[in-house]
Write a structure and sequence with these properties.
The complex is a heterodimer of chains A (107) and B (242). Chain A is mainly α. Chain A has 4 helices and no strands. Classes of the chains: A mainly alpha (107), B mainly alpha (242).
Chain lengths: 107, 242
């Protein structure tokens, strides 16, 4: 149990270090280098794009169901969102459809 | 009060996702003989979803502290990106700042990136968003640890809530963007890296690729802005402020 507690402590510490690193590297009382300011405006949409792919990394296109539930549900989320622009509705609708597809259609 | 209400509404999708993913984590952990206290403490102090799932195998396998540190570094390195893009947004947040930085998960990042709605106290809004999300995660995993495998409702596929959240936020970014290059870079670089390196190790090469491309792109853009500024200094300034 002692070793387990140490493992948890190490994970917590390293995670916090990574999260704090940029803020320690660039303290708020000093002017940011221009390229860092630039990056901070370019990064967000790239990172969110990366996260979308990250969420879908486990999808296997070559074996059944060939990522169809994911593709259909993502497309549904996009349509729903373009139509109503309501984040909660888009997420609930997409998730419900995905669960139905997985549990009833592609089981 | 209005700020709290708006922060709560914005956090609802994460509530759904965190309850599910958090309780699944608690259930898995209790299956391995770790009581809900462990789930509670890990979610409170580590507060990094995918890493906590990895932690289960580290714990049961009795991993060394060195390999634990390395593993954490690799799984969580993406948080560097979040920090870099929040440097401006989180400067001047005063007493909230340490907690805002500590609690910057994928999902909270995605919500904060969207900005604070009109008429709210911006810093308080970010703080409450972060706090609510953290509470959902801790509550979800503790409940999961308590009820263990007694769960009967078939939740297969409910984790899609997180994917859907990122898809909607990505869409919001696209709809608001004047420049699609960063978004496209993010997707294509990650897909390319996934194809080349496989699902276990693709994230770090993807981050490197994105950093290199966007740095070059940013430098070129700055150069162009500088040339434009000699023609119209005021316009260049405004662009910089955004």
């Amino acid at each position: 149990m002692m070793h387990s507690a140490l493992i948890v402590a190490v994970i917590a510490l390293v995670t916090a270090l990574i999260r704090f690193a940029p803020f320690l590297l660039f303290p708020q009382d000093r002017e940011l280098p221009a390229i860092v300011t630039k990056l901070s405006s370019l990064l967000p949409s790239a990172v969110i794009g990366m996260l979308v792919v990250y969420c879908l990394k486990g999808v296997k296109l070559l074996s059944s169901p060939h990522g169809i539930p994911e593709l259909v549900s993502c497309a549904f989320v996009v349509l729903l969102h373009v139509w109503r622009r309501n984040t909660l509705l888009s997420i609930l609708g997409g998730t419900a459809l995905y669960m139905i597809l997985l549990q009833l259609v592609f089981r | 009060m209005d700020t709290a209400k708006k922060a709560f509404t914005a956090s609802l999708p994460v509530m759904a996702g965190y309850f599910v993913l958090g309780s699944a984590f608690g259930v898995l952990l209790s299956d391995k003989g770790y009581s809900f206290v462990w789930a509670f403490a890990m979610s409170l102090f580590i507060y990094a979803g995918s890493m906590q799932y990895v932690a289960i195998s580290l714990l049961t396998g009795g991993a060394s502290l060195i390999s634990t540190a390395l593993m954490t570094f690799m799984v969580n390195l993406r948080h560097l990106f979040y920090g870099i893009s929040m440097l401006k947004k989180y400067s001047g947040t005063g007493k909230y700042r340490p907690y805002l930085i500590f609690s910057l998960t994928d999902e909270t990042y995605a919500l904060v990136v969207n900005g604070a709605p009109e008429g709210t106290d911006e810093h308080l809004y970010y703080f409450l968003l972060s706090l609510f999300d953290h509470c959902y995660w801790v509550a979800g995993s503790t409940i999961g640890g308590l009820i263990g495998a007694a769960l009967t409702f078939d939740t297969t596929g409910i984790d899609f809530a997180m994917t859907a959240l990122f898809v909607t936020i990505f869409l919001e970014q696209l709809l608001a963007a004047e420049d699609y290059f960063p978004a496209i870079t993010g997707v294509l670089a990650t897909v390319l890296s996934l194809i080349l390196f496989g699902p276990d190790t693709f994230l770090i090469p993807a981050m490197l690729l994105i950093s290199v491309i966007l740095t070059v792109y940013g430098l070129l853009q700055m150069k162009r802005e500088k040339t434009a500024e000699t023609d119209a200094p005021a316009a260049g300034r405004e662009e910089e402020e955004r």
